């Protein structure tokens, strides 16, 4: 990537927006935008301290403001974060969940993370976001998606297993999981 590319990051990829119906609810799955900072802050406020712990591996009661900014101001060439936004009802416009991938320098791999609002867990939203993220990574030619999961996070381990991720290593109480991506859509 040239110096000019660093100064001119890719524009918001509107073509990746997708309106869907999920469990009787209209959702918009789309890339996160810089304008989502306040929405993302409100989303994180509705995630329990326990769920923040399983995502960040540390006791966090509130995500610091610089981190919220970092999560919403992304370089689409190096990372992607898809949010599920309520498209109807009382929660219209609210972020319900997020799945992100950060490309690893010098590799054809990306590290992922997923987080769903605590009151919406176990409703398939994490799987929905992860499938969109996997499709995106595959289309970008990424060969492997990997992440770290606390071994006590049974729900995430089950989701990862259902999506085809395999356990690579376990160190202390953290497992590294990975999914090899085929770039041939017929092989998916």
Question: Any key phrases for this structure?
Answer:
alpha+beta; 188 residues; Aminopeptidase; 8 strands; single chain; 6 helices
What does this structure look like?
It is built from six helices and eight strands. With about 190 residues, the protein is an alpha+beta fold. The chain has one domain (about 5-145): Gcn5-related N-acetyltransferase (GNAT) (Aminopeptidase, 3-Layer(aba) Sandwich). Strand 7 (about 165-170) and strand 8 form a beta hairpin. The chain is globular and about 40 Å long. About 25% of the residues are buried.
Q: What is the total domain count? A: 1
Instruction: Return the string of H and E elements.
Output: HEEHHHEEEHEHEE
CATH architectural group: 3-Layer(aba) Sandwich
CATH superfamily caption: Gcn5-related N-acetyltransferase (GNAT)
Instruction: Determine the strand fraction and express it as a percent band.
Output: 25-35%
Gap between N and C termini, in Å? Answer: 29 Å
Determine the structural class based on helices, strands and strand pairing: alpha+beta
Q: How are the SSEs ordered, and which strands pair?
A:
Elements: H1 3-7, E1 18-22, E2 25-31, H2 37-45, H3 49-56, H4 65-72, E3 79-86, E4 95-103, E5 109-116, H5 125-139, E6 144-150, H6 154-162, E7 166-171, E8 174-180
Parallel strand pairs: 5-6
Antiparallel strand pairs: 1-2, 2-3, 3-4, 4-5, 6-8, 7-8
Short structural summary:
The chain is of the alpha+beta class and 188 residues long. The protein has one domain (3-143): Aminopeptidase (3-Layer(aba) Sandwich). The chain contains six helices and eight strands; from the N terminus they run αββαααβββαβαββ.
């Amino acid at each position: 990537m040239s110096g000019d590319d660093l100064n001119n990051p890719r524009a918001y990829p509107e073509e990746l927006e997708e309106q869907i119906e999920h469990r009787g609810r209209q959702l918009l799955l789309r890339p996160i935008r810089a304008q989502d900072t306040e929405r993302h802050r409100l989303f994180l406020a509705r995630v329990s301290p326990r769920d923040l712990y399983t995502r960040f591996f540390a006791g966090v009661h509130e995500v610091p403001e610089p981190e919220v900014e970092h999560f919403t101001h992304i370089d689409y060439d190096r990372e992607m974060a898809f949010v599920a936004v309520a498209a109807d009802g009382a929660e219209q416009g609210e972020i319900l969940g997020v799945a992100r991938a950060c490309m690893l320098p010098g590799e054809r791999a990306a590290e992922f993370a997923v987080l769903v609002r605590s009151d919406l867990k176990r409703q398939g939203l994490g799987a929905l976001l992860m499938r969109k993220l996997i499709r995106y990574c595959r289309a970008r030619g990424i060969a492997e998606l990997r992440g770290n999961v606390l071994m006590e996070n049974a729900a995430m381990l089950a989701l990862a297993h259902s999506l085809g991720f395999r356990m690579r290593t376990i160190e202390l109480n953290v497992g590294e999981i990975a999914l090899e991506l085929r770039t041939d859509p017929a092989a998916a």
